[in-house]
């Protein structure tokens, strides 16, 4: 059933014309990006669901030393209510000191649950090693776990991961090159030479000739004002400009684990015959001429008519003529209830024989 639904979606995509999209939907401004932050800290206040690992004791002892409390060397703290955690967050572009971030807190060790815990002050660093935010607060944990004396256990969702909304306070802004230089560069989410050229042409039609140029299949460079406020208005205008993306290259995506097969709209077949399993499918492509009456004033029109016949017999043969699209073959195989694995075997054989015009991608 899943295969048939996906096939229907692929067929609908073939008849729906491409729609123009805004530049902000198909590209991003180079240098305008988020940054990943990570920290190492302690969650306290757990109801006996913490851990007793050596690194937990070391971390807890180090925290006490920072507050001027030194434990004797032969004393080990009992810390069933403490867990060592990793704290991470994404720092959006242009965020300023004093603003807040949502953080995710994950147990590192053998803690059974973080429910009810509180994260102590944790420094969050960037890839350069500098501290950009400080996280602290009570965790929101959606999962829970329960364990009986006989070892039976019930776990729902993930009790060892929680979040703290607005749990990190930004202390340092990330330097941005947005307002420097004479250019802005748009990077396409999907590299394509045709789409890059169309984007450059659309910008030039709006701003004037040679204001934009495609650097490669993924980047379009545009002259921009140096003043920061003018650059913001300039970019606000450009990012809402509509561009019609180019058609994707002919591809067939096959998920071998789930049996999902998605056929691209530009996939075509060359003349070939395939024998497979318990199926016989014949596909013929015929042309018909529609001739108007002598006084009708119309034009002679040539139309294509596909004839598909599917049956199960002892001799299993797939036959199709030039110009047949792959969706017609897949539809015919689907009529007799073939499994996606059968279709995959046929596609691989056609590709090896050179009769399949399109990239076959198995994931």
Verbal overview:
The structure is a single chain. Helix content is 22%, strand content 35%. Helix 1 runs antiparallel to helix 6. By secondary structure, the protein is of the alpha+beta class. A hairpin with an 8-residue loop joins strand 4 (83-91) and strand 5 (100-107). The model is unreliable at 1-17 (pLDDT under 50). The longest helix has 15 residues, at 193-207. The strands form seven sheets. Strands 3-4-5-10-7-6 form a six-stranded antiparallel barrel. Strands 2-11-13-12 form a four-stranded antiparallel beta sheet. The chain is flat and about 105 Å long. It is found in: Bacterial flagellum basal body. It comes from Shewanella jiangmenensis.
What sort of overall outline do the alpha carbons produce when their principal axes are compared? Answer: flat
Secondary-structure element string: HEHEEHEEEEEEEEHEEHEEEEEEEEHHEE
Radius of gyration: 31 Å
| Stretches with pLDDT under 50, minimum 5 residues | 1-17
Helical run tally: 7
Family: Belongs to the FlgI family.
Organism: Shewanella jiangmenensis
Protein name: Flagellar P-ring protein
Subcellular location: Bacterial flagellum basal body
Entry summary:
The protein has 363 residues and is α+β, with helices and mostly antiparallel strands. It is built from 7 helices and 23 strands.
Features of the shown structure:
single chain, 363 residues, alpha+beta, 3 domains, 22% helix, flat, disordered N terminus, signal, cilium, Flagellar P-ring protein, cell projection, flagellum
